[in-house]
Each structure stands twice: as structure tokens, then as C-alpha cells.
Design a protein that fits this description.
There is one protein chain. With 151 residues, the chain is mainly α. 76% of the residues lie in helices and 0% in strands.
Length: 151
């Protein structure tokens, strides 16, 4: 729940920022001067890119959470079996061991979105965020029946 609150607060702050920056762009365009119009248009591009990125990221999180809920209802969510250091951090050897099992599971069932979801969790636990995101995107695509390129 704490992660959701953090995400919503961050998204709200970004939207406020995008509105403020966008309003400055509109004011620059309103000057009517060629330099002001060009700068105003350039300033408007940044909030538009930011809003697009925020929208795409929010859609990704919603879809990943929907898969997690579906997997939980099936009783297939990965169990946290990772060993931890006294400080609470994940033990690297433990994460590597679980990752190897998840990777083998995915290689055995490459068209199963559930195995890709669990692999994404294993990547995340191993602190490999880019691969975790790609694996989750693949899980979402497989779940939605969209064609996916070979990994």
C-alpha cells in the first residue's frame, strides 16, 4: 500500500509540475514574438513527453498489478523464499538460486505468461530492473494474446 501512495503522490507532483511548465510555454507563445513562440512551443514539448511517459508507466503498473491479482487468485504467486542479511537485504546467492529456477521454468514454458511474471519478480529481486521490466512486459503481452518477439 505504501508503494501505491508513493506512486500517486509522485504522479500528482509531476502533473502539477507539468501544468506549471506548460503554462509558462503558453505565456511565451502568447507574447506573439517569434522567439517567444518558438521557446514556448519547445517548453510545451517537455510536459507532453512527461505526461505520455507517466501515462505509459501507469498503464504498465496497472497491468502488472492485474496479473499479480490473477496469479494470486490462482495461488501461483511466487513465494518469498529468499534468504536475507541481518540488515534485511536479499542475499545475492539466494537470489541467484531462485533466479536460476525461474529462468529454467520460463525456458520450459516460454509461452506461459505466469512463468514470465515469476521471472520478472526474480529479476527484480536480483536488482536487474531493466530485465525485470522487459520480462513483465512480455508477461503482459502473452496474457493479452499479443504477438511477442523471441527473447
Amino acid at each position: 500500500m505504501r508503494a501505491k501512495i508513493t506512486y500517486v503522490v509522485t504522479a500528482a507532483v509531476l502533473v502539477v509540475y507539468f501544468v506549471l511548465v506548460g503554462s509558462r510555454g503558453v505565456l511565451l507563445i502568447g507574447t506573439g514574438e517569434p522567439v517567444g513562440v518558438v521557446l514556448g512551443l519547445a517548453v510545451l514539448v517537455l510536459p507532453l513527453i512527461g505526461l505520455w511517459f507517466l501515462w505509459k508507466n501507469t498503464q504498465f503498473v496497472r497491468r502488472a498489478n492485474a496479473l499479480a491479482a490473477e496469479l494470486d487468485a490462482e495461488g501461483g504467486l511466487p513465494v518469498d523464499e529468499l534468504k536475507r542479511t541481518p540488515g534485511g537485504r536479499i542475499d545475492r546467492d539466494s537470489a541467484d538460486e531462485v533466479f536460476a529456477r525461474r529462468k529454467a521454468e520460463t525456458e520450459d514454458a516460454p509461452e506461459d505468461w505466469r512463468s514470465w511474471f515469476r521471472l520478472a519478480v526474480a529479476y527484480h529481486d536480483a536488482r536487474d530492473t531493466p530485465r525485470a521490466r522487459k520480462a513483465m512486459q512480455r508477461a503482459i503481452a502473452l496474457h493479452d494474446g499479443k504477438p511477442v518477439q523471441p527473447a
